[in-house]
Design brief:
- The chain has helices at about 10-20, 35-45, 65-70, 85, 155-175, 180, 185-190, 200-205, 325-330, 350-355, and strands at about 140, 145, 230, 235-245, 250-265, 275-285, 300-310, 340, 365.
- The chain is α+β, with helices and mostly antiparallel strands.
- It has one domain.
- The protein is globular and about 55 Å long.
- The relative contact order is 0.21.
Length: about 375
């Protein structure tokens, strides 16, 4: 848990859950995560399309991978080919040198994208977020808004506070941990996922050994190949929020919607050209009642997730983000999809993916 979050001791949390579980011998096994999410979608938005992958040009993904094992995976990986000639000078927010005040934590979805500025302000090793709205964002978990806890579903106020803290722990362990960013296995993050959710466990068993379109670790975890790139400094900028509500069977359903900005340089030599990879993830998780669901204390069940990535690799399923630098961009050119502002958080992830449609790689208006 972060320094700024309140929590109860782990022993109390686990004792509470063990007692609840002990009173529920023969508890039914949790329905698949897909079943939960489909029911919610039918209830809330009957006309919403199925999940799809915008990084597969000209067709939607249906009926394979996660669908076969029961977990709805709404994957964006909207990997955009940056066009430096158009992006230079379109950056918004502060200058990355501290001349603008940090933004307050995000408590609700903004109603418009961050402002842009006319002056060209390219990133440097000393100021890797210069010329980007992320210059005013929070560092690490400080940029993720955490709501006040209240008794919800099967949990008391204290248990909800603990679940929110552990949710943020998962975000840190999956998308901010230095070792994971260097390509290590995200063991701490995986330990927080319900080991009895078999479809997810099958994915985890395959994704790091043989990454593919259907089994791509980047869907949940941020990883770079350390032999090719290295992060600049020790700060990842973030902006987003965590919300929650009562879910099925009295569970506490938590939704996280966070944008992460990773500045990198080439690993070889003394390169000082800074590129940025930007990933926005929406992860929905269910903190289930052990009296009603087979689950280990202190873990959550995955409901769904979506990821939308800029400069992370287009149709490259290596298991790592593969950012492009100027030479690669000149060779590959712009994407064939729509223009995308990776810092625009005013649209939901569903809206963003629907707008992208079946396009392949889009073009970022800024990095």
């Amino acid at each position: 848990m972060g320094e700024d979050g309140a929590s109860i001791p782990d022993e109390e949390w686990e004792r509470f859950l063990r007692e609840a579980e002990a009173g529920a011998q023969g508890a039914p096994e949790e329905p698949s995560a897909r079943a939960r999410m489909v029911a919610r979608r039918l209830r809330e938005e009957p006309g919403r399309p199925e999940g799809w992958r915008t990084h597969q040009p000209a067709r939607r993904r249906r009926g394979k991978g996660w669908y076969a094992v029961g977990l709805l995976v709404a994957v964006g990986l909207l990997v955009v080919a940056l066009n430096p000639g158009r992006a230079v000078g379109w950056f918004g927010g502060g200058g990355g040198g501290g001349e603008s005040a940090p933004l307050a934590a995000e408590s609700q979805r903004p109603d418009q994208p961050p402002a842009t500025e006319a002056a060209a302000r390219l990133p440097t090793v000393e100021q890797p977020f210069r010329g980007s709205p992320a210059a005013r964002w929070g560092d690490g978990t400080a940029g993720i808004g955490l709501p006040a806890a209240r008794a919800t579903g099967w949990m008391s106020e204290e248990q909800v506070a603990q679940a929110l803290d552990r949710t943020r722990d998962f975000l840190a362990a999956s998308s901010l941990d230095p070792g994971v960013l260097r390509g290590e296995r995200p063991r701490k993050a995986i330990a927080l996922i319900n080991p009895h959710q078999q479809d997810v466990q099958d994915y985890l068993a395959t994704a790091f050994r043989a990454p593919s379109r259907e089994n791509d670790p980047r869907l949940l975890f941020s990883r770079f190949e350390k032999s090719k790139v290295r992060l600049v400094g020790n700060v990842v900028k973030t902006r987003g929020r965590i919300t929650y509500r009562e879910g099925k069977r009295g569970a506490v359903e938590v939704t996280t919607d966070v944008t992460y900005v990773y500045p990198v340089v080439r690993a070889a030599g003394k390169s000082d050209e800074v590129a940025r990879t930007i990933a926005r993830r929406e992860v929905v998780m269910s903190w289930d009642d052990p009296a009603k669901v087979v689950i280990e204390p202190g873990t959550f069940s995955l409901v769904s997730y979506k990821v939308d990535t800029t400069n992370g690799g287009c149709d490259a399923f290596t298991g790592y983000f593969t950012p492009e630098f100027n030479a690669e961009r000149a060779a590959t050119g712009s994407g064939d999809g729509p223009e995308v502002d990776p810092y625009d958080r005013s649209k939901s992830m569903d809206s963003r993916m629907r707008e992208a449609g079946e396009a392949g790689c889009g073009t970022a208006t800024r990095s």
